Amino acid sequence: MKRRTWVVLMGLVAAMAASCDSDDSSADENNIPVGLRLCTVTDQGIEVVDFESIAVQPSGTAAGDSYSVNLDVRGSASVSGAVDVALWTNTAIVAVAGVAAEGLVGFDLLDPDNPVQIGALDMDSPLRLRIRDASLYVAQGNKGLSVLTLPIDFSYIETNHFVFDADDLGNPISVKDVEADGAVLYLATDHGLWVLQYVNGTFTELAHDPSTVLTSCRLGVNKNLLFCTGAGLAPDVPAMQPNPRGLMIYDVSEVDSPQLISATANSNVDLSTTLDFATSGTNQALVVEQGMGLAWWDISSLEEPVRTDLTDMPWPDQVKTEGSWAFVTSRGVDTVPHQGSGVHIFSFGGTVPAETYAIGHITPTNDARVKAVDIQTIQ
């Protein structure tokens, strides 16, 4: 059964009062269609929510308008150990780790009110999922990297697998994240940034930058730029002390020789670690700082990015964008189980003026704790 929820945003009392006096026709004119589907993974399973539209309530003052989002809460399904999710057409692919049966679990979302499990694939330590073109890339920590062709037939699956040799001390090299740009793969590891070529199931090393220790990170490619967040540069690089643990930007126009353009510190280097980021073109970046909140960066100058604001929220983990919207997961306050957990919705890149406060919030059911989210246009 559907449960329709209206989330009222931060705004002026006068603006909300004015919207109550307006007629239905003006309300329709101020309703902006969105049409996005979100699938969240929590400590209890998956939940599906449709972000249908956003209503604008003009304030008539210099303080600006206020907004409300129309969310349609759809179905859910139970799965233990879910850590990440990727959407492909009407299928949710869920990474399951830290439990006895690790691997990938598929759910059919053709009827979003009733997600149905369609199969499972055994795989060691699937930590992060990334879909590019018609391939699924799976970062597996010290188990390496797997590449699967989509769509996945869970009754029979062929996986191309890559694993690093141990380092000079015999320690495994752990893959934390992977980004793909055509046949070029960028791997974030605890031994630095690696660049591989992947053609017809064969992996070839192109470059390695050992100066960047990426123990907790996210990668993203925008044209000839590689954005990277994580623990920052290695402490034995004197020019970059103290360890910035922030947003790093590489020039990868020559993939076999990535060049670091800049590395920026978090708002509190001692307390925060950068977990994730998203960019809007090459002008703005959102950076998730664990323990601090969501940092807004002006990156129009790649050599000297400037942090313009910080949105406080309880323990954010992940940020993803779709169109003009950014979605930030928060696992809530550690000292109060699940308090504040959910997905925060921000305007990011056009439909409404960029706001540094969340204009909407998705709260999981049954006091669940959100771990990850993926978004797609409603089919």
Helix share, percent: under 10%
Q: Please state the second-level CATH architecture of the domain at 164-312.
A: 7 Propeller
| SS field, number of helical segments | 2
How would you sum up the global shape?
Answer: globular
The radius of gyration over CA amounts to: 21 Å
Counting helices, strands and paired strands, the structural category is mainly beta
Assembly annotation: single chain
CATH superfamily of the domain at 164-312: YVTN repeat-like/Quinoprotein amine dehydrogenase
β-strand number:
29
Query: Which segments are poorly predicted (pLDDT under 50) over 5 or more consecutive residues?
Result: 1-27, 237-242
Q: What's the N-to-C terminus distance?
A: 20 Å
Approximate strand percentage: over 45%
Task: Walk me through the topology.
Elements: E1 3-8, H1 13-21, H2 24-29, E2 31-42, E3 45-57, E4 66-78, E5 82-88, E6 91-96, E7 103-108, E8 116-122, E9 128-132, E10 135-139, E11 145-149, E12 159-162, E13 175-181, E14 184-189, E15 192-199, E16 202-209, E17 218-222, E18 225-229, E19 247-251, E20 259-264, E21 273-280, E22 284-290, E23 293-298, E24 306-311, E25 316-322, E26 325-330, E27 342-347, E28 360-362, E29 370-377
Antiparallel strand pairs: 1-4, 2-3, 2-29, 3-4, 5-6, 6-7, 7-8, 9-10, 10-11, 11-12, 13-14, 14-15, 15-16, 17-18, 18-19, 19-20, 21-22, 22-23, 23-24, 25-26, 26-27, 27-28
